[in-house]
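User: Can you help me understand a structure? I only have the sequence.
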Amino acid sequence: MWRYLMCCAAALMSGLAGTAQAPAQCQLADPSFERFALGVASWELIGDAYTSPALAPHGRFSARVAGTDTGDWNLAAFWQTIDTVPGERWRVRVRVGHRSVDPLTGDSYAAIIIEWRNGSDNLISSESHTVADSSTPTDVMQQIELETGNAPAGTASARLLLGIMQSPTSALGAAHYDLVEFNSLTPPTIDDIQWDDFPGGRTLAFSGHTWRVKGPGYYGPGPSLFADSANHVWIDAQDRLHMTIKNAGGNWYSTEITTEEPLGYGDYIFTVVDRPDLWDDNVVLGLFIWQYPVCWEPDNPWNLHNEFDVELSRWNTPGNDLGQFVCQPWDYPGNLSRYDMDFSSGGQTSHAFRWLPDRIECRVWYGGPTDESAGTLVHTWTYAGPHIPRPEQPRVHINFWQLDGPPASGTDHEAIIETFTFIPSCADSDSEFPCFAFCLTGPDTPITATCAEFDEDSDEDTDLHDLVLYQQGFGV
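Assistant: Let's start by predicting it. Here is the structure, written out as tokens:
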């Protein structure tokens, strides 16, 4: 064992000695490798490392690292460098796996390595965590979570490596990584900063969820003042949500709420009962998912906010279509689809996006959340580009805000959202059983598209017989 550990350590040190210096940054770039696969520099490489469509649990690509035959231990890895300070600890979450066509064998293993480096990028020390080996099931990606030790004295950066250690006595193999998270555990953490814009502490109960109310204070979007009082955002006797843009005491206030918990993959349906066609051209109703990042990057090349939007606004351009679906960054080719519809009846309109690992299915229809049909549909669009939000912690947000100043007419505005409906998707195996439970209906109850994957006996409903078949498939 000692001989094995020593040879691995020597190979590790010699493999990293020749890597180039890369500037540190405040957060990971391109953590799902989608833009790297399109030729955009984000990760540094060691050895045989490239993106692959195999074993990608999200988007179209995973990071593949493969062993080579050098006659000695060797390392292949993707890596990035993140700013840190002495004493700081970090949490790593990542999906990792290997395939039956080129598995890890013998003593070879996949490892997450954290190198602590000083201000001159010289190595101080490192730690290695085995995340897959020959005993790991093949052809599936497993979620790994680990915490580092404390960064030692003199540390200025942490280098995160996603690698494979290839044994000289084992057949060549490869490992795959995807959906990487690397966040500091030193306050304020990534969890803490989700609530920086919500100092008032007010909450609302709406459509079966608890929502926090933004403000009071001056924040984006806009930016503008946000109010959190019951005079500005409230739930009426019919359990409908009222959002306002309102003048109070000579100041114009926008409003925003967000769910306390992220909901993950699934169908997000927002039902509006209002006349958006009568709003001023410079007001915006946003119905979206969003995550506050560790730091601000104006270019936003990786959709670092994990944002996807439904937005109702003419964007200060008279005659514009009133609605749009947007995957951020909005100005990337193919990331935006606009639509218009007739709001003159003041009745229900539903605006929905089904967020899945490899696409987002967008629909708009007349009627409530259960009225979607060929006869009610107004617009559909499927997004499958490189910026699909990652299932980290984007929460549902609803906001009503001012673009380039107060409403042009100088009048208060109100938006009414009748319901928000969420139907979970079970594409992510970590949440599959709760999703199945949600989908259980009964004999002869039609199933939704999201629940169709659990119709084990193909009789067009999801019932206890399907549950038995599902459990048998997992040996339960």
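Now, to help you interpret it: The longest strand covers residues 413-424. Helices lie at 2-17, 432-439, 464-473. Let me know which part you'd like to focus on.
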